[in-house]
Amino acid sequence: MSNLPREAVADAVTYFESWLEFRQRYSRIPGVQAAVWFDDDLLLSRAYGYADTEAGISLTPRHLFRIASHSKTFTATAVLQLTEKGVLRLDDTLEQWLPWLTGQPLSGITVRELLGHSAGVIRDGHDSDFWQLADEFPDEAALRKIASDRAEVVPANERFKYSNIGYSLLGLVIAAASGQDYQAYVREHIIDQLGLPNTGPEYDPARATEYACGYSALAYADHRVRIDHVDTAAMAPATGFYSTAEDVVRYAAAHFHGDVRLLTDASKRLMQRAEWKVEGTDGEYGLGLSRAEIGGRLVFGHGGGYPGHITRTFFDPEDRLAVSVLTNAIDGPAEELAVTLLRLVNLAESGAHDTDAGSDHAGLHRFTGRFANLWRAADVVLLGGQLYLLAPTAADPTHAPAKLSVIDDHTLRMTGGVGYASYGETLSYEFSGDTVMSIRGATGTSYPIERVRGAAATLGHVSPGKPLR
After folding, report:
1. In the chain, at which end, N or C, are there fewer CB atoms within 10 A of the end residue's CB?
2. pLDDT > 80? residue 351
């Protein structure tokens, strides 16, 4: 049972849903798919934008995404399952399971060192243009060549050094230890165990029409180029998986404390324990899981980068909260979007603690909504019983949130926010029944955003006496 107030989480998710729809359009992302799991419930499973922009096919929660390095969490889970069975040990060396490495520099690398990215192994080989689809991804024979060709880049246990090749080798270890092909093992012992219908360890051509198209970045062109899906071959344990946001949060929930469908709590805590600080970031890495503290909340998970798809998942095993955001562009801001859900939950939780739990908040909803004028869009949001003025265009809309206090049934006062804003000033509402018609405040009069959007679509220009409204 989570200690988070359910109403606070529900408020955060309600706003997150609206904000994601806005951000997808505002940031010109082809498509965004997102899901939130709390305690034992799926609170959100939505999609925004397009699965195929050229064909005009709308994205749905059922479209499949390549979740790339999320695959490492499945691989690490499989390794810990085999250690629980006594088949495999974390201090086993590679040559114990892959005798073809005997005499090679990587022969003495341990399973644990690979899981924690401390083995010093090359990231993708000396020729990694398969990531640009210039070549095919390495098959097992090619993987063996990469592992035997100057793959020892830095000494083991010197620092965190991310390696897709290291996790690809773990796939071979799992196959050798289990007696099953890697893909067969993870299907039987993880995917089928949890009943995840839209998850698999590698691209499935039979479901080709179900995948969201991937797209290139806008950093080097004015338009996005479609990127085909390909098989990642022997690198599937590092980057091959596909899934949906809904399936991913269901999978993440199996890593909550107390859930023993995949692993014991002891093994989950071993995965979640910090092995290394990740240089250049505020984060750490465990065994197949990243660790981060967001607003005082310790969360775990992984990101994924596949040609055309950028994805991110976080989960809090104590408060039983998980969020996954999948985007179908190589510059998709999946991490930024997923972090926002956590920040919104934190803000709603703080509002719930600061507000009288027995008070009636029903009347506060009439003030909420998304409003705009020539200068900005702004959201009046109810989180945990507290009204806030947030900027939906901000990468972090919760940064320096402006609290709003009720003066009367038509007026709010700003009691927070940044110093350059309008602290202490009022927002005066004009209602028609319970429908907001306009808000007069420091930056002029704002209107429901649909009205301003409609005016922008029809106005040729803004001029004196001809405002955007």
Report:
1. N
2. no
